[in-house]
Structures are given as C-alpha cells and as structure tokens.
Amino acid sequence: MHAFAHQHPWGELQIVARKSSRSCPGSPEAFQAAYNYPELVAVAEARNAAPAERLASEVAAFALSHEADDLGIASMDPLYVFEGYTIDEPWVIVLAPAHNYGRLKEVPSDETNGVGVGDVGDQYARGTRSSYALANWIRSQGFNAHPYPGPSAGALVLIPAAIASGLGELGKHDSLISRKFGSGVRLAGVTTDMPLVPTAPDHFGADEFCSTCQVCTNACPPGAISEQKQLVRGVERWYVNFDKCIPFFAEAASCGICIAECPWTRPSVRPKLLATMAGRLHRSPGKS
Q1: Has residue 51 been placed in a domain?
Q2: Domain count, the chain
Q3: Starting at the edge strand that comes first in sequence, how are the strands of the sheet with 145-148 ordered?
Q4: Which of 25, 37, 165, 176 is close enough to 74 for a disulfide, judged by CB 3.0 to 4.6 Å?
Q5: In the chain, what percentage of residues exceed pLDDT 90?
Q6: Which DSSP category does 11 fall into?
C-alpha cells in the first residue's frame, strides 16, 4: 500500500530526503521501526454483525489500547487520495500518536544529541504499529482494511481526513493543531469497509489564532512558512513552501521546530489558549 517514487507526486523529493537523512548520525536507527511493516492477516470469512455505532466504539477502544493517543473517523473523500491512486474503502480512521513534548523540543538534533530525532522516529513507528494492528483487528472481524502510516508517502492524504474527523484544525505551519496535544502529533490512517459512524469536526479557534501569531513563521530556519494564507488550488489556506522545508528536514534528519514552538503545543499554555479562543468564538457571530 506504500507509494513507489515514480508513481507519487512527492516521490523524487522523498528519495532525496531519505538519502540525506541516512547520512545524519542516529537517524537510520531512529526511523528503522517506522519502516518495519508487519504482515496483514487474511480477512475473516465471518463478519461481525454488530451495528455501526458498536463497531465504531470497538474500533476506538482497540486503537486507544494499541498506541494511538487519539483517533477520528471520516467518510472517504476522493480529495483525500493522491492523483493516480485509488482507495475503494468508504471509511478512513485517522490515528494520532502524540509526541513527548520534552523530547520534541530537541529537534533538529546534531550528532551529540539524538533525543529529538528519536522522538520523531518513535512516533512514526507507533503510527506504523498502531495502524497495522487496527487494520489486522478489523480484518479479523471480517472487513477489508488497509493501513497508511508515515513517514513514507502513500495514497492517502492524512491531514484533510484528520480535520474532517475532528482531530484538529490546520495550522499556519501546515500541520494539524489538536485540541488535546497542540501541534505535537503525527498521523497514521486505516481505510476500511467496516460500517462506522463519523466523528464531528472540531473548531476551537486555532485557525483564528494563527491569523495573528507569527511564532512558527519566525522560528522556521529555511523560511518556509508564509505569514498569510495563500490561494492553493483554488482554496485560500495556510501555505508552507516544501521546496524549502523538506531539504532542511532531510539535512537535519528531522525537524520539529515549528510544531514545538507553536504555543498550542506547550502543555502549560494550551488550556489558557482554549479558554481564550472559546470566549472569542462565543462573542463572534457565525462561529461555533
């Protein structure tokens, strides 16, 4: 289910990133588990006949007990699939492994400090293990399921599905901002034909906050994060220049500066921001 470089729009850039990161001390070891893809079990012949609400609850319970720190469920949308690929399953489950904030603040790391690189690799590895575990559990219930972990690009675009499923909002740094963990999350996905119930989008004010905050823009070493929204494929949204971002990420063997510096990621700050933005949204007509 993982993309080949010649098929994927980010394939060549992915090859450059992986080659560069291998030359950084500690990087191959840190990410090794993320590329260790378990075998998928055969789909069981007998299907779990429970109603969708029960199945969705069981999916959540299984995922949260198998290394996911949060999850959301959304109906599949063709816009979540890269051009040239197809996904037949009607549901996508997005899993969110959360960073260790103390370790996240250490990226990018140099050869004397592999702490930050290790945490980025650890969370991608948790995403791999949790997505494969959930896919195999769903298969054991008699339904098709396919995992989509990072960091290798695959057919599934995870952030739009994560936003639709209520895991958070898009931040200025073009990463997800979660109500529970701020920007300190990685994502993995599972697509399935198991009958499920979607979780609702969550609007808590991150987008409004980003419109006046410049923390990640100022902190980004290659200057990849735009100060204002831009028109991207007909939609006005936050924009990151990945031709600047990814080469720096590769040379540093990972980077988490923008998500670590994001005020939403700081455990001591996030509750205050949630309360402040809830008040602002309450006073603004048309906001929820």
Answers
A1: yes
A2: 1
A3: 70-75, 91-96, 188-192, 145-148
A4: 165
A5: 66
A6: H
